[in-house]
Amino acid sequence: MIRTTDAIVLRNRAHLEADLIVTYLTGDLGIVDAYAKSPRKVGSRFGSSLEPLTFARISLYGKEQATLPRITRSDIIKPFNQLRESMSIYLKISEILELTLRTLPPRERNPRVFKLLLDTLSLLDGRPDPLYMLYYKIKLLGYTGFAPVLRGCIRCGEDTDRFYLSEGAMLCSKCAEGGERFIVLEPSVQRLYQYLSRIEPAILKRIKVDKGVLAGVEELVDAHINYRVVDRINSREFINAL
């Protein structure tokens, strides 16, 4: 059985002497691993189409539930070469790719996340901006059910500026218990988070964001991801080490 779909390469890894296992995010099939025969040999028909970030039209051969279908065709739609040529940009993008891999279950169809990643790569290809990657994280958390709750105290509804990592939500001082860690969120930080969670990608090109407020939202999102979603993002630790 041959299935054809649009796909974005999230990563690839060597297999045997000259083969590759490629991990894709697809609109139709979710995240899938696929096997490419001899793409590293000179004259391979796959060329550079299996490189990370490449947006391609691919054909997969194998039974519907095969754990490792074979790639029979890969036609590049957009290569996003510039994003790979800059090491600093590629490392930062690697963080959102890793987060995608660790929040989406394999083979779970999520066309919204596929479109989100494609839109974000297109924005970054035109002008690398940390706002775009922050936007991706916020929308991804919403699409996968991990979004923090920022609508007043989650228990009594009172206004509060305290975000508790253990709850993934806001708590007022009366409802909070013990000395658990919290982040104080300025109203401007809460407003920017809510705004970014609602807008479409195209609007990002037209907005200007205060750097201090942007840093506050980044702190919130990264701390929430580390505490509630995944315990560590390897690519982020690598960047920090550099």
What does this structure look like?
With 242 residues, the chain is α+β, with helices and mostly antiparallel strands. It folds into two domains: 2-79, OB fold (Dihydrolipoamide Acetyltransferase, E2P), CATH 2.40.50.140; 86-150 and 185-241, Up-down Bundle (de novo design (two linked rop proteins)), CATH 1.20.1440. The protein has helices spanning 81-85, 87-103, 111-126, 130-143, 187-198, 211-229, 234-241, and strands at residues 2-15, 19-26, 30-36, 55-61, 70-78, 162-164, 169-170, 182-184. The strands form two sheets. A five-stranded antiparallel beta sheet has the order 3-2-1-4-5. Strands 7-6-8 form a three-stranded antiparallel beta sheet, with no helix packed on it. Strand 4 and strand 5 (70-78) form a beta hairpin. Helix 2 (87-103) runs parallel beside helix 4 (130-143), helix 2 (87-103) runs antiparallel to helix 7 and helix 3 (111-126) runs antiparallel to helix 4. The longest helix is centred in the last third of the chain and has 19 residues, at 211-229. The protein is elongated, with a radius of gyration of 20 Å.
